Amino acid sequence: xxxxxxxxxxxxxxxxxxxxxxxxxxxxxxxxxxxxxxxxxxxxxxxxxxxxxxxxxxxxxxxxxxxxxxxxxxxxxxxxxxxxxxxxxxxxxxxxxxxxxxxxxxxxxxxxxxxxxxxxxxxxxxxxxxxxxxxxxxxxxxxxxxxxxxxxxxxxxxxxxxxxxxxxxxxxxxxxxxxxxxxxxxxxxxxxxxxxxxxxxxxxxxxxxxxxxxxxxxxxxxxxxxxxxxxxxxxxxxxxxxxxxxxxxxxxxxxxxxxxxxxxxxxxxxxxxxxxxxxx
Length: 280
Description:
39% of the residues lie in helices and 21% in strands. The chain is an alpha+beta fold. Strands 1, 2, 3, 4, 7, 9 and 10 form a seven-stranded antiparallel beta sheet that branches. Strands 6-5-8 form a three-stranded antiparallel beta sheet, with no helix packed on it.
């Protein structure tokens, strides 16, 4: 199961069938003496909101430009790092959180629907999230003056707002300057619950299947199907750790049969899903 390792106080929230554990929102500054945090991973999501400055966010070898009012997300078990690219400091706020699925039955609220969409697929970066600035006073002046209860409720609301902002809105289709790696990886992440074919990807990129194979080999050093399966299995591990059953995870990621999911899982991890859960 997922565990949240952090030096900061933790808050626990219940939203429908989900339990959420979140660290306090914490400020961080990158400057000339601390210009990068180097590639690393977490066993949790890490949401970061840029208050000022600019830099690069690199996740899974894909570079994103980050600047004021930008929201970006570190996914569990995925290599990422932040690099300062200007003389001015890069200031941001961040928190780590885990989401655990339970068997609790309740009517689905708007907040739970947002979490469902976020877990189905989440973007790595969203620009122009200026509205998130409205929350920051609750974690600065309010706390500094002795407040606590309202900041805890505000953090829950902020978390839902960030998950909503990070829910895909097909923004990548409107940006003609986005790179092949970023565009194709976002498309695949948006359709992990489907059976993705080479023809689907080629049609989306407006290239021939042969050209698509060439581009995948050039940018990812693998084939389209191998990349898709790796993405599906990487995400399925997170869902298994969150408490979803093997059958649920198999269905979530578009496998027609449980046996097909088990074979693919073992091919990429060396263990069957049951063996993986037993080992963990």
